[in-house]
UniProtKB/TrEMBL annotation, chain A:
Protein name listed in UniProt: ATP synthase subunit alpha
Gene Ontology, cellular component aspect: plasma membrane; proton-transporting ATP synthase complex
Organism: Halolactibacillus alkaliphilus
Entry EC no(s): 7.1.2.2
Membrane topology: Peripheral membrane protein
Similarity annotation: Belongs to the ATPase alpha/beta chains family.
Record function comment: Produces ATP from ADP in the presence of a proton gradient across the membrane. The alpha chain is a regulatory subunit.
UniProtKB/TrEMBL annotation, chain B:
Organism: Halolactibacillus alkaliphilus
Compartment(s): Cell membrane; Membrane
GO cellular component: plasma membrane; proton-transporting ATP synthase complex
Keyword line: ATP synthesis, Cell membrane, CF(1), Hydrogen ion transport, Ion transport, Membrane, Transport
Cross-referenced HAMAP family: ATP_synth_delta_bact
Gene (name only): atpH
Organism ancestry: Bacteria, Bacillati, Bacillota, Bacilli, Bacillales
Protein name as catalogued: ATP synthase subunit delta
Family: Belongs to the ATPase delta chain family.
Function description: F(1)F(0) ATP synthase produces ATP from ADP in the presence of a proton or sodium gradient. F-type ATPases consist of two structural domains, F(1) containing the extramembraneous catalytic core and F(0) containing the membrane proton channel, linked together by a central stalk and a peripheral stalk. During catalysis, ATP synthesis in the catalytic domain of F(1) is coupled via a rotary mechanism of the central stalk subunits to proton translocation. This protein is part of the stalk that links CF(0) to CF(1). It either transmits conformational changes from CF(0) to CF(1) or is implicated in proton conduction.
Membrane topology term: Peripheral membrane protein
Pfam families: OSCP
Length: 502, 181
């Protein structure tokens, strides 16, 4: 049997002739129980999991659990006007959010509605919030770097475009700062950023948005906010909204960076939802599918192959630990899903090492291949040096008569730590990072007193900008150490005119 | 139609047994009487649930329901033994639903602002039977002023909404996009 085009078009013609927009028979149900943003519905035969349903007052709901005689629905929006006995009808659609470039620069809620008071969003495009992740053949190895502008990350745990790098640490260790600085550094990098704030204070989010605005980062950033006062369903949906918006850029051959701040709050919201839906609790009272909750989200981050446009979506999920315990349920889950983690430690933070990155526990499983050659060359031994310094440091506390080589190593280690420190919202370009680390590993900083290192660094950058722009340009454009004699000359000439503070 | 799971189980079992013996219609008639006795507030249920009467329960049921079919009496005894007296009305409803499904009759309601004439009701039944996938419909007319105008047919959690209210809702929906609600 073959199908001929004429037959089909004749059929459609006939259909057009007799087509009339008529009310259809719809499946309905009745609310038998409601509260806490959840409604139990009787009826709604044939409804699908994840389908949108509409309540009598126009509020939408998302079908979450299908049981023998009832359907559990999470209410998106106000649940206060929903009463027992209300009628609920199927819509036959799954949840979608508006996407596209007109969202850039806006602050939206997880349903894609603007909350920044700048008027409606003019976009016709929308994407389903749940979408299949790209498969094996659709992907490509990660090879382009994502410059965070933080020396400690770009040198020690480099991130590539399309990677999923977890940022983990206790509260008040500067996790959000890492994300904000990373977003600030994406200016003119052909990157769209999506900052998903989950369960944060609205005042904090407001301050973050202000930081973006002040540094001109809002021009390429979308902020999705599900504040602490938002109902659990919205906090649960927020990351999926963010990823849907990022996918739109990725599948159009562009680059996107999605920051989920933070996923432990989303997991807690999902736990609340699941318990109210009477799903059995498991470890730490999380439901059984909390791993899938995060894996299906993070798996959607990818570097697409060239046939699909070569776009990428980088994911920076955050997880908050309690007292540095990374063996809790959510941290272990997300660590195993992601391609590496950046571990922020509070004792480092309070001893003044900021960003408080622990180089021993932080890894990047794929980012190395995305690092520029120049950076790879200068930062290659940095991690090992730091590790051996930490080891020596603990030994050196016992005795004072150390041999020269050990002293030298300790000296270099202290300076390395000092160089990796960085101020708030001051991203450093890749070429400058290369220059300062080059100066460090070649021993130019060994004679500089420890307290002068940071001043040396800032003045050095200014000096380079003024006196040796071609050296910086060479590194930026080729990504390699093409002209080492010039670099050495630049460093030593600056070193000569650098005035010590004593 | 909010029959509990237990009520549905009893109804299904009774229906299966009745069908095997071929007198499901007789049981249906008997059940209507039972439903009245058992529907809340029911003195009989209170009496049966009284701990003092525990020993007498089965005797009372047997003696009062002498003329009823034996399957039905046995089912009631089982239900009373299981402390499921309150599920009896639900069981009856589900039994009626099952037998009507087998007969391919759709039982439901039609809402309107004013009472429909028998002629109108017949027309609606005739027109919608096929659309709902039944041979025949048995609709009960009910007044609902909230629908403003037109009518609304509800059969087993499926609805055909030809009311003015639904049309206005449709208009509103066209003005307000999904993500703004």
């Amino acid at each position: 049997m073959e199908i001929r085009a004429e037959e089909i078009s004749a059929l459609i013609k006939k259909q057009i002739q007799y087509y009339q927009k008529d009310t259809e028979i719809k499946d309905i149900g009745t609310v038998i129980e409601t509260g806490d943003g959840i409604a139990q519905i009787y009826g709604l035969n044939n409804v699908l999991s994840g389908e949108l349903v509409e309540f009598e007052n126009g509020t939408m709901g998302l079908v979450q659990s299908l049981e023998e005689d009832r359907v559990g629905v999470v209410i998106l929006g106000s649940h206060l006007s929903i009463r027992e006995g209300d009628e609920v009808s199927r819509t036959g659609r799954i949840m979608e959010v508006p996407v596209g470039k007109s969202l850039v620069g806006r602050v939206v809620n997880p349903l894609g509605q603007p909350i920044d008071g700048k008027g409606p969003i003019k976009t016709r495009k929308s994407r389903p919030i749940e979408h299949e992740a790209p498969g094996v053949m659709a992907r490509k190895s990660i090879h382009e770097p994502l410059q965070t502008g933080l020396k400690a990350i770009d040198a020690l745990v480099p991130i590539g475009r399309g990677q999923r790098e977890l940022i983990i640490g206790d509260r008040q260790t500067g996790k959000t700062t890492v994300a904000v600085d990373t977003i600030l550094n994406q200016k003119d990098q052909n990157m769209y950023c999506i900052y998903v704030a989950i369960g944060q204070k609205d005042s904090t989010v407001r301050a973050t948005v202000e930081t973006f605005r002040r540094h001109g980062a809002l021009e390429y950033t979308i902020v999705v906010n599900a504040g602490a006062s938002a109902p659990a369903p919205l906090q649960y949906l927020a990351p999926y909204t963010g990823v849907a918006m990022g996918e739109e850029f990725m599948y159009n051959g562009e680059h996107a960076l999605v920051v989920y701040d933070d996923l432990s709050k989303q997991a807690a919201a999902y736990r609340e939802l699941s318990l109210l839906l009477k799903r059995p609790p498991g470890r730490e009272a999380f439901p059984g599918d909390v791993f899938y909750l995060h894996s299906r989200l993070l798996e959607r981050a990818a570097k697409l192959n060239d046939d699909l446009g070569g776009g990428s979506m980088t994911a920076l999920p955050f997880v908050e630990t309690q007292a540095g315990d990374i063996s809790a349920y959510i941290p272990t889950n997300v660590i195993s899903i992601t391609d590496g983690q950046i571990f922020l430690q509070s004792d480092l933070f309070f001893s003044g090492v900021r960003p408080a990155i622990n180089p021993g526990l932080s890894v990047s499983r794929v980012g190395g291949s995305a690092q520029t050659k120049a950076m790879k060359k200068v930062a290659g031994t940095l991690r090992l040096d730091l590790a051996s310094y930490r080891e020596l440091e603990s030994f050196a506390q016992f005795g004072s008569d150390l041999d020269k080589a050990t002293l030298q190593k300790l000296n270099r280690g202290k300076r390395t730590i000092e160089v990796l420190k960085q101020g708030l919202h001051t991203p450093v370009s890749m070429e400058k990072q290369v220059m300062i680390i080059y100066a460090l590993i070649k021993g130019y900083l060994d004679e500089i007193p420890l307290e002068d290192i940071r001043r040396f660094e800032t003045e050095f950058y200014e000096y380079l900008d003024a006196g040796y722009p071609q050296v910086l340009r060479d590194i930026r454009e080729t990504g390699e150490l093409t002209n080492e004699p010039d670099m050495k000359e630049a460093i030593s000439s600056f070193q000569k005119q650098f005035s010590r503070s004593y | 139609m909010k029959n509990s799971r237990n009520a549905r189980r009893y109804a299904e079992a009774l229906y299966d047994v009745a069908r095997e013996h071929g007198h499901e219609e007789q049981i249906e008639r008997e059940l209507l009487a039972i439903r009245q006795v058992f529907s809340a507030p029911s003195e009989l249920v209170d009496f049966l649930q009284d701990p003092k009467q525990w020993m007498n329960r089965s005797r009372i049921i047997k003696s009062t329901l002498m003329t009823f079919s034996s399957e039905l009496v046995k089912l009631l005894l089982i239900m009373v033994e299981d402390h499921a007296e309150q599920d009896v009305p639900g069981m009856v409803d589900h039994y009626t639903y099952l037998i009507n499904e087998a007969r391919c009759i759709g039982v439901g309601k039609v809402y309107s602002v004013a009472m429909l004439t028998p002629r109108q009701l017949e027309d609606i039944e005739a027109h919608f039977a096929e659309r709902f996938g039944y041979k025949r419909l048995a609709l009960q007319n009910q007044i609902d002023e909230r629908i403003i105008g037109g009518f609304k047919v509800v059969i087993n959690n499926r609805v055909y909404d030809a009311s003015l209210k639904a049309k206005l809702e449709d208009v509103r929906r066209k003005f307000v996009p999904l993500y703004k609600r």
